[in-house]
């Protein structure tokens, strides 16, 4: 009698599509984290980063005073940094706070892309964002921009979920997240505006009007204190150049990853390649919500740029740092276009080209993109200074990064005679800071100090676009000290004035 054996079921593959997707997104997140911690503390703090720390170092009473009257725009980031700095105040330790939300944004981009056009688009969008040099730059700055990107991306994800499956919890989460984004930067409003613009692509019956109205009312209520505080701070918004075609070009080039004109063209073509896929979805028999997701991504990318450009004709605000909220939708739209190319080899080839150009821009950031060298300038002044020297800063707020590096480097520095008080702490305590040293102070210097140092930030002396006020301070000091030697650092000029000739600055 023949012996029969029970059939042995075929062993299922150890790696399912879901496992593969999780492994890939984990790998992209790991890559992004590696790129964002690479050389994290190598470059010097620049003025804005030192200002972030100066605000975060304030006691809570002074902190509330300055964020409600002078710096409300990044108040959430400053509050988090106030606690985070207890882990360390080195450049790398403070910048690490920006790395975390930058990396956390990638899974959200993947989920939005997957929900819109499939897992492949979500993975590719996350990869493009991971390689974007502008995203890496702001993940390596002690500023709130990477937190802004994360919060606006999370708010967009919750907005999508709230439209598709309305619930009080989702819309409450949307309102809270959007409000937190506003407290990180005013330009979160660009993204909320994009959300509203996108509703034009939905049928009226697909819009949860009551839930949406409640969410918007919640945002308005939560943001009202910020709006009130902002009235006092409007005058402190830094001036930017008026909009121009070269300015628009360089802004768009920065957003696409600072890889030059070819990367800008590659992203433009990739976004255009998404048009047929979006069109097919809109003309298909699918529900309007599925087509609306594509419209939301387009609105998310285009609305902030259009609004910034329009406002700039009244008050110039067109800047890549204010448009970092466009980085996730740019990656999503480009990924949609690249993934839709046929035949498949054309899609892979296009992805390889865009990826290579993005890597080129990223390498350029690490190798060639400098920051104001306050570390080098401070070290130089400490090493070359003598007892009895005086030190002045112009503009006065440039004392902030110098104080940071003087404390870290140690050693005796010349006596600071202008401004007499650290800028941020003086403003927080209501102590007025003069805009420039003034004739009276300059007249007193020669009788007390044989040598005077002047530190001019933002290349105010050595560049054609330098400040006339900075040049005026330099000219006034030359009347009182006939000998002067200059040493430039990136973004900074250090000048030593002396009564006697022959003063030399060592290299």
UniProtKB/TrEMBL annotation:
<keyword id="KW-0808">Transferase</keyword>
<dbReference type="GO" id="GO:0009103">
    <property type="term" value="P:lipopolysaccharide biosynthetic process"/>
</dbReference>
<keyword id="KW-0472">Membrane</keyword>
<dbReference type="InterPro" id="IPR050297">
    <property type="entry name" value="LipidA_mod_glycosyltrf_83"/>
</dbReference>
<feature type="transmembrane region" description="Helical">
    <location>
        <begin position="320"/>
        <end position="341"/>
    </location>
</feature>
<feature type="domain" description="Glycosyltransferase RgtA/B/C/D-like">
    <location>
        <begin position="86"/>
        <end position="227"/>
    </location>
</feature>
<feature type="transmembrane region" description="Helical">
    <location>
        <begin position="145"/>
        <end position="163"/>
    </location>
</feature>
<dbReference type="GO" id="GO:0005886">
    <property type="term" value="C:plasma membrane"/>
</dbReference>
<feature type="transmembrane region" description="Helical">
    <location>
        <begin position="119"/>
        <end position="138"/>
    </location>
</feature>
<feature type="transmembrane region" description="Helical">
    <location>
        <begin position="175"/>
        <end position="199"/>
    </location>
</feature>
<keyword id="KW-0328">Glycosyltransferase</keyword>
<feature type="transmembrane region" description="Helical">
    <location>
        <begin position="211"/>
        <end position="231"/>
    </location>
</feature>
<protein>
    <recommendedName>
        <fullName>Glycosyltransferase RgtA/B/C/D-like domain-containing protein</fullName>
    </recommendedName>
</protein>
<feature type="transmembrane region" description="Helical">
    <location>
        <begin position="251"/>
        <end position="279"/>
    </location>
</feature>
<keyword id="KW-0812">Transmembrane</keyword>
<keyword id="KW-1003">Cell membrane</keyword>
<feature type="transmembrane region" description="Helical">
    <location>
        <begin position="348"/>
        <end position="369"/>
    </location>
</feature>
<dbReference type="InterPro" id="IPR038731">
    <property type="entry name" value="RgtA/B/C-like"/>
</dbReference>
<keyword id="KW-1133">Transmembrane helix</keyword>
<dbReference type="GO" id="GO:0010041">
    <property type="term" value="P:response to iron(III) ion"/>
</dbReference>
<feature type="transmembrane region" description="Helical">
    <location>
        <begin position="291"/>
        <end position="314"/>
    </location>
</feature>
<dbReference type="Pfam" id="PF13231">
    <property type="entry name" value="PMT_2"/>
</dbReference>
<dbReference type="GO" id="GO:0016763">
    <property type="term" value="F:pentosyltransferase activity"/>
</dbReference>
<feature type="transmembrane region" description="Helical">
    <location>
        <begin position="21"/>
        <end position="40"/>
    </location>
</feature>
